[in-house]
């Protein structure tokens, strides 16, 4: 099993970033087409029609958010910077070696869109179900 680790520096404060991660409205701004939540489970729907029921495992406001995500563990860690922004770390553990390259690259797409939404209020995704990651589009 392998682990993906990515870091991102955001101008936005941890509260804003945490709200993007932990609210249905926030998640649909940068991550998925739908992301409703019920009883500690996020019901993700992605542009290609794929769905996943993601169990929330840990939530510490403005600091940490952990999920079961496609049979792996995803940890989001937020630290406020000296300038009031956020140093953001994503750790995705327990990834099968055969899936690692795609997941490693896929998180870049998600995280760069998180930065665009958090810092510039701009969604970079195309929202076209015929132009998704499956067809080689990075702006899915």
Automatic annotation (TrEMBL):
Ranges that cross the membrane: none
Note the superkingdom of the native organism.
Bacteria
This chain's source organism reads Flagellimonas eckloniae
Residue span, Activator of Hsp90 ATPase homologue 1/2-like C-terminal domain: 13-117
Which Pfam families does the record associate with it?
AHSA1 (PF08327)
The name this protein carries in UniProt is Activator of Hsp90 ATPase homologue 1/2-like C-terminal domain-containing protein
The record's family statement is: Belongs to the AHA1 family.
Q: Which InterPro entries match?
A: ASHA1/2-like_C (IPR013538), START-like_dom_sf (IPR023393)
């Amino acid at each position: 099993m392998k682990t993906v680790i990515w870091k991102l520096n955001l101008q936005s404060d941890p509260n804003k970033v945490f709200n993007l991660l932990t609210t249905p409205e926030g998640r649909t701004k940068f991550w998925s087409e739908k992301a409703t939540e019920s009883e500690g489970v996020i019901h993700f729907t992605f542009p290609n029609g794929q769905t996943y029921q993601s169990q929330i495992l840990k939530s510490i406001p403005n600091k940490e958010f952990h999920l079961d995500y496609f049979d792996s563990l995803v940890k989001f860690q937020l630290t406020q910077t000296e300038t009031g922004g956020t140093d953001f770390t994503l750790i995705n553990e327990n990834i099968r070696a055969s899936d690692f390259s795609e997941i490693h690259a896929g998180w870049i797409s998600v995280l760069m869109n998180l930065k665009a939404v958090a810092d510039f209020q701009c969604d970079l995704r195309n929202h076209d179900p015929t132009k998704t990651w499956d067809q080689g589009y990075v702006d899915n």
